[in-house]
Amino acid sequence: MRLKAPNGQEFRIDQAQDGLTQHGIILFSGATLNELKSALNDWTVPYRHPHDISPGVTVIRPKLTGEANAKGFTYEALPLHTDRAQVDNQPTIIGCLYTQEAADGGESLLVDGAEIVDAMFARRLEYIRGLHRESVFSGHPEAVFKVHTEKFPPDSADTVLICTDGFARCIVDYKILRSWADLKVDVHRHGLKEITSRIRKYEAQDRSNSSPTKFEQSDDLAAIILAN
Hints:
- It is elongated, with a radius of gyration of 24 Å.
- Helix content is 28%, strand content 8%.
- A hairpin with a 5-residue loop joins strand 1 (2-4) and strand 2.
- It has helices at residues 16-23, 33-40, 113-128, 165-172, 180-190, 192-204, and strands at 2-4, 10-11, 27-29, 159-163, 223-227.
- By secondary structure, the chain is α+β, with helices and mostly antiparallel strands.
- Helix 5 packs across helix 6.
- The strands form two sheets. It has a three-stranded antiparallel sheet with strand order 2-1-3, with no helix packed on it.
- Among the domains are: 112-148, no CATH class; 150-228, no CATH class.
């Protein structure tokens, strides 16, 4: 059994915990399932998964439509996700054991969750400090709020919509309306309050069988419409 970090550094099995702490991801090669379980026994506790076949072991194989969590057990590509993210007691280590090479595709992208969180906070701080064209409201002592201006010739547009990304989700993410042209018609016919209500109703419904959205609910739902 060989252990290797993403940068190529190799470890002994007794260095696995330190290597994982340092690099976030390590690769075990030339190991069977029983060998892996034995190697991890000294410093891990098996995590029980609703679909496991034994403590700490879940086999990923295609399930029939209608079976529990059929979308997660498939040969089809899955988006990046965190296993068991919806529960309070989450696993701290995720391992993948590949027993057979895929005939087509088969690539897996594994990322360090802690590194992603750090990158998200760093990116957010960039926007707070005004390093990008867009800016955000913040009470941070280094916050820089940018005000943008746009000029339109009087005859270039009869309607101007100024909205947050939360409002824009009615088209971009939620597909409540097909286009900005449709939004313009609906706003003039029913008003912004009606569109806002439809967004909130969409966010409140059970979407367990649909594509996931970025957030459970828009936290910045606002819009202003200017019309001749």
